[in-house]
Amino acid sequence: MAEEKVSRRDFLLYAMGGWAAVGLGGVLYAMYKTWEPLPEVKAAGVVKFDLSKVKPGQMKVVQWRGKPVFVLRLTPEMKKCSNRVIKNEYVVVVGICTHLGCIPNWEPDRQIFKCPCHGGEYDACGVNTFGPPPRPLDIPPFKIEGNTIVLGEAGPEYEKMMKG
């Protein structure tokens, strides 16, 4: 077999092609890394909250995916809403008005959520009762683990609530 000599021109073409392939690989890797969510975003996707920390009649705010989630523990005197209550005493709703995206305030004396922007009102269960909000406050996906609610994962309780 006779050895073929590679011309200088062919060598330079192969070398440039190799460098182009390495550069393309670097660009593709950089693009992939920018599309991948940051670790703090991944960590915020699921939030655990101990429901036993909420006293009857008290409302706590939990941050989930950058949104406020209202956790309200109902008292026996408060309106009952079987299709929006967790463990027969907790209301968990995303605290963003369904009209223009304002954050409603909890008014414990009137037992309503009131939107400061346009006067919309929601009852203690998060159901719109007055003003322009077109629908009730959203319920985030959740699952129950003992006394802990895990926001961001749809469990059987959430599935049942969404069907009913």
Automatic annotation (TrEMBL):
SUPFAM superfamilies: ISP domain. Pfam families: Rieske (PF00355), UCR_Fe-S_N (PF10399). Keywords: 2Fe-2S, Disulfide bond, Iron, Iron-sulfur, Membrane, Metal-binding, Transmembrane, Transmembrane helix. It comes from the Bacteria. Belongs to the Rieske iron-sulfur protein family. Residues 84-151 form the Rieske domain. It comes from Persephonella atlantica. InterPro entries: Rieske_2Fe-2S (IPR017941), Rieske_2Fe-2S_sf (IPR036922), Rieske_Fe-S_prot (IPR014349), Rieske_Fe-S_prot_C (IPR005805), TAT_signal (IPR006311), Ubiq_cytC_Rdtase_Fe-S_su_TAT (IPR019470). This is Rieske 2Fe-2S domain-containing protein. The chain crosses the membrane at residues 12-32. Its cofactor is [2Fe-2S] cluster.
